[in-house]
Design goal:
single chain; mainly beta; hypothetical protein yedk fold; 7-stranded mixed β-sheet; 6-stranded antiparallel β-sheet; 4 helices; 36% strand
Length: 229
């Protein structure tokens, strides 16, 4: 799963946005949590743009905005058969830009948070979005697609966000053409080397937004790139 992530206003994030054709600058944000509004890249009518969406998908057909069900992540393996995610998977795919994300391990009765970041880049998470129009104004919301964790990342968690390579981003955003093989895009892979580092348990509280919380508190390790085709 992916329940927290971060944005850093740095050259790597700027480069990712530029490659995606979005000339904007995103502010640094730490410890972003579900239900917050986040920047999302969509492509409609042949034009790409960045929008702010609620990170907790509300299906267009839902009778009301509801948080009883965890809708901030969408499992890649079940998208085509999911009532909530099937429509967005076919017609409303998006990219969620990120600089790093956070996962937890459990040991000795406590949870240990870990920062997971690319060594030299930003990340394009595969996402889905929808528009709920039963109230005015309409609500646009999104979910991050997850896959089984790649080797090395699985030391921390069994799942991770689906990461798109530069060559896959255009295909993912182009909902005008069906994906010939969705599994080819949504599979456990790392587009580059990643670094994993332990963080202070203070990051557990999603109200804590100080970027200093993302400083490692112990030894980090490096994970090699995997299946970057």
């Amino acid at each position: 799963m992916c329940g927290r992530y971060n944005l850093h206003d740095d050259p790597w994030l700027a480069g990712l946005l530029r490659r995606l054709g979005v000339e904007v600058r995103l502010a640094t944000r730490a410890n972003i949590a579900p239900t917050e509004h986040v920047p999302v890249i969509v492509e409609e009518h042949g034009r790409r743009e960045l929008r702010s969406m609620r990170w907790w998908l509300v299906p267009s057909w839902a009778p009301a905005i509801d948080q009883r069900y965890s809708m901030f992540n969408a499992k890649a393996e079940t998208l085509a058969g999911s009532r909530a995610f099937r429509g967005p998977f076919l017609h409303r795919r998006c990219i969620v830009p990120a600089s790093s994300f956070i996962e937890w391990t459990a040991a000795d009765g406590r949870r240990q948070p870990w920062l997971i970041r690319p060594e030299h880049d930003a990340i394009a998470f595969a996402g889905l979005w929808d528009r709920w129009e039963k109230e005015d104004p309409a609500l646009e919301s999104c979910a991050i697609v997850t896959v089984a964790a790649a080797p090395g990342i699985d030391r921390v968690h069994a799942r991770m966000p689906a990461m798109l390579t530069p060559g896959d981003c255009a295909r993912w955003l182009d909902v005008g053409h069906p994906l010939a093989d969705p599994a080819a895009l949504l599979r456990p892979r790392l587009p580059g080397a990643f670094v994993l580092a332990p963080l202070s348990p203070a990051v557990d509280n999603s109200r804590h937004k100080n970027e200093a919380l993302l400083e490692p508190v112990g030894e980090a390790w490096r994970v090699e790139p995997m299946d970057t085709r």
